[in-house]
Design brief:
Helix content: 25-40%
Structural class: alpha/beta
Strand content: 5-15%
Number of helices: 14
Radius of gyration: 21 Å
CATH topology of the largest domain: Aspartate Aminotransferase, domain 2
Strand order of the largest sheet: 1-7-6-5-4-2-3
Oligomer: single chain
Largest sheet: 7 strands, mixed
CATH architecture of the largest domain: 3-Layer(aba) Sandwich
Shape: globular
Low-confidence stretches: none
CATH class of the largest domain: Alpha Beta
CATH superfamily of the largest domain: Type I PLP-dependent aspartate aminotransferase-like (Major domain)
Length: about 400
């Protein structure tokens, strides 16, 4: 592998390991353990693992290592650790570096499970959490303290698609010595410049665009070798959130086609947003790639594209949103995103339903809000399907 390769080439070839049989498709090493030629060899591995040595699947596996090296090459990270789900990756990235008495600052516009970790889990163990408006740099600056150990945010928030200034927040956090952890799922590895812009750790739900075909759960933590191997790995290998070898193989196959899928999804998202802006039944259309978005200039200067998700807010509230969802012929009602199929979600009653009503209002999660994750169907068919469903709303 060479660093000069484009992302699309790295997604196909990085991290490849071939057995003595010279297989084209990566091998699946379905084993929980490994054998040693001698007792001395076993002793040596438990002291320090070599570059291509393994002792137990909870700690590492050849198929999983191929996935970790490939996604690290795509992201421009020194190393990666694959996990059983996206939330296992978020949990480890937040919990592993922290201890009782530490302070965390996080954007308040987050996925419901991320908020649960910040609101419920970390405070139980003596970690103080301050939530801020992620778009307000003065709020970040005011909340950061000398004892702030970590900041956390979604580069693009779920489901209202607020775009955080990664570079500016990272500079503020680093000024007080805080670690910057970013959930990057909406930006996708295809368009990510998150580490380049100053983040220390990037987290993905591989369940989304990396698998991209609704088959399995997975997550990954990316960063420096020091963080991945000295901070995240001890926590993960002792608490058991390992990605299975079969899942790792699926993720490797997903990476091979991810760029083709994501670019097609982005093209459909751009077309849909343009078709829906100004529609009489919509109170608002939210798409970072459209000029109407408040952070459009920031998007153009960083990722250059607005992503695969469009959110719309139906003027008629929940009743109109449900009529719209139930009238779809192509789009599928589901709570996932990043799939080859177009998926639509009503966040107020599903992914964010546990939030108090005042918090939903504060985050802009209205009764009429619908999140649309564009698939790879024909763009013209998708736009037509959304318009006919709006007619029935």
């Amino acid at each position: 592998m060479t660093d000069a390769w484009k992302k699309q080439t790295k997604a196909v070839h990085s991290g490849s390991r071939r057995s003595q049989y010279g297989e084209v498709s990566e091998a699946i090493y379905l084993t929980q353990g490994f054998v040693y030629d001698t007792a001395e060899q076993a002793e040596a591995r438990f002291v320090e693992l070599g570059e291509d040595e393994f002792i137990y699947a909870r700690y590492g596996n050849p198929t999983t290592r191929m996935f970790e090296e490939r996604i690290a090459a795509l992201e421009g990270a020194e190393d990666a650790f694959a996990t059983a789900s996206g939330m296992a990756a978020v949990n480890a990235a937040l919990v592993a570096p922290l201890k009782a008495g530490d302070h965390v600052v996080a954007a308040r516009a987050l996925f419901g499970s991320c908020l649960y970790i910040l609101d419920e889990i970390l405070p139980r163990f003596g970690v103080e959490v301050t939530l801020v408006d992620g778009l307000d740099l003065s709020a970040w600056e005011a909340a950061l303290r000398p004892d702030t150990k970590l900041v956390f945010f979604e580069s693009v928030s779920n489901p209202t698609l607020e775009v955080i200034d990664v570079e500016a927040v990272s500079k503020l956090a680093h000024a007080v010595g805080a670690l910057v952890v970013v959930d990057n799922v909406f930006a996708t590895p295809v368009y990510s410049r998150t580490l380049e812009l100053g983040a220390d750790v990037v987290v993905y739900s591989a369940t989304k665009h990396i698998d991209g075909q609704g088959r399995t759960l997975g997550g990954v933590i990316l960063g420096t070798k020091e963080f991945v191997r000295k901070v995240a790995e001890p926590y993960l290998k002792h608490t058991g959130a390992a990605m299975s070898p079969f899942t790792s193989w699926i993720m490797l196959k997903g990476l091979e086609t991810m760029e083709l899928r994501v670019r097609a999804q982005v093209a459909s998202a751009e077309a849909l947003a343009s078709a829906l802006v100004g529609h009489p039944k919509l109170a608002r259309v939210i798409y970072p790639g459209h000029p109407s978005h408040a952070q459009h200039a920031l998007v153009q200067a960083t990722t250059g594209k607005g992503g695969t998700v469009v959110s719309i807010d139906l003027a008629g509230g929940q009743e109109a949103a449900f009529r719209f969802l139930n009238a779809l012929e192509i789009g599928i009602i589901s709570n996932n995103l990043g799939d080859a199929k177009t998926l639509l979600t009503h966040p107020a009653t599903t992914t964010h339903q546990r939030l108090p009503e005042e918090q939903k209002v504060e985050l802009g999660i209205t009764p009429g809000l619908v999140r649309i994750s564009l698939g790879i169907e024909a763009t013209e068919d998708l736009v037509a399907d959304m318009l006919q469903a709006l007619d029935k709303a």
